[in-house]
Design brief:
alpha+beta
Length: 210
């Protein structure tokens, strides 16, 4: 982990990367990271948002994208009707920061993917910064996993769908198990007794979500 932080700092110094706020980072985002919105459209969305108007524009997929939240270190963008992007600046050391990006797709149930970048949009290895929650974490403690009832319920959980959400207010990341929502109402009733009611909450600590 220390080697990772050192590598990030060296790359930032070499590139002359300065601290930036989220609006500037959104504009400088490489187009391949958000093909639905060209650079000029991103600028327009920010201008609309800052002017207090409805920050909503037509995108390249013949739908609409809307900028719903923007602060100095956080952004929430509804990219399409079924997809969104959240971004948060996370502090390292010596006043340096990295970008955490959460992409969520509702198809029809929310499922997320997490990526990390330097503020110059160089990709970082997620495995060094974050450990995805396993679906087994959401099973209630004390569950008799050998019981027929649990085995029957678990057979319906044949995929792992997890929605991640960044907090605008602090350095936390919330993981919600959404696989049960994908099931029929009857199957959901069978699995619900075995699933924790609370999500998993990560906290950013120096260089890793824990």
């Amino acid at each position: 982990m220390k080697q990772l932080i050192f590598s990030i700092l060296i790359s930032m110094i070499a590139l002359g990367v300065k601290a930036q706020e989220m609006d500037a980072l959104f504009i400088s985002m490489p187009d391949q990271n958000i093909p639905q919105l060209e650079n000029a459209w991103r600028k327009d969305l920010i201008d609309l948002y800052k002017s207090g108007k409805d920050a909503r524009l037509k995108n390249t997929m013949n739908g609409f994208s809307s900028l719903d939240s923007l602060t100095a270190n956080y952004m929430y963008l509804q990219v399409t009707d079924r997809s969104s992007i959240e971004m948060k600046l996370l502090p390292l050391v010596n006043n340096t920061e990295i970008i955490c990006m959460v992409r969520t797709v509702n198809g029809p149930v929310a499922d997320s993917r997490i990526e990390f970048f330097t503020t110059d949009w160089q990709p970082l290895a997620s495995s060094d910064l974050f450990t995805p929650v396993d679906a087994d974490w959401f099973i209630k403690e004390g569950t008799d996993t050998n019981s027929n009832a649990f085995q029957d319920a678990a057979s319906r959980l044949d995929m792992s769908l997890i929605q991640y959400k960044l907090s605008p207010a602090d350095l936390t990341l919330t993981a919600t198990y959404t696989t049960p929502l994908y099931l029929s109402r009857e199957d959901r009733k069978k699995v619900t007794p075995f699933i924790k009611e609370s999500p998993k909450v990560y906290t950013w600590e120096k260089s890793h979500f824990k």
